[in-house]
Amino acid sequence: MAVHGKFGAPCPRCGARVQRIVYAENEANYCPNCQTGGKLLADRALSRLLHGDWPRTEAELEEKKAAARAGLEPDAS
């Protein structure tokens, strides 16, 4: 219950970013480090969309976000 409703905030125990799973109209928040050993749980809607591209760890998620941001930035020319 320490991370309930705190999606995106740091975990009070380890400092990792709190993740969220959405199913229908329900939502569950969890700390991937404290509760799942670093593994990101699959969100039904996103994992069905991304299939094999679903990140397995928080580090992989951050790498994918950084790559997406770098690809979306306009050229400085």
Radius of gyration: 14 Å
Helix fraction by DSSP (H/I, runs of at least 4):
25-40%
Mean residue pLDDT: 79
Taken as a percent bin, the fraction of beta residues is: 5-15%
Written as H for each helix and E for each strand, in order along the chain, the element string is EEHHH
- Unreliable parts: none
Shape: globular
Total beta strand runs: 2
Main sheet specs: 2 strands, antiparallel
Structural classification: alpha+beta
How far apart are the termini? 50 Å
Polypeptide structure, described:
This protein has helices at residues 32-36, 44-50, 58-72, and strands at 19-23, 26-30. The model has no long low-confidence stretch (mean pLDDT 79). The longest helix is centred in the C-terminal third of the chain and has 15 residues, at 58-72. It is built from three helices and two strands. A hairpin with a 2-residue loop joins strand 1 (19-23) and strand 2 (26-30). It is of the alpha+beta class. Strands 1-2 form a two-stranded antiparallel ribbon.
Task: Give a quick precis of the structure.
It contains 3 helices and 2 strands, in the order E-E-H-H-H.
What are the defining features of this structure?
single chain, two-stranded antiparallel sheet, 13% strand, 77 residues, alpha+beta, 3 helices
List the helices and strands and how they pair.
Layout: E1 19-23, E2 26-30, H1 32-36, H2 44-50, H3 58-72
Antiparallel strand pairs: 1-2
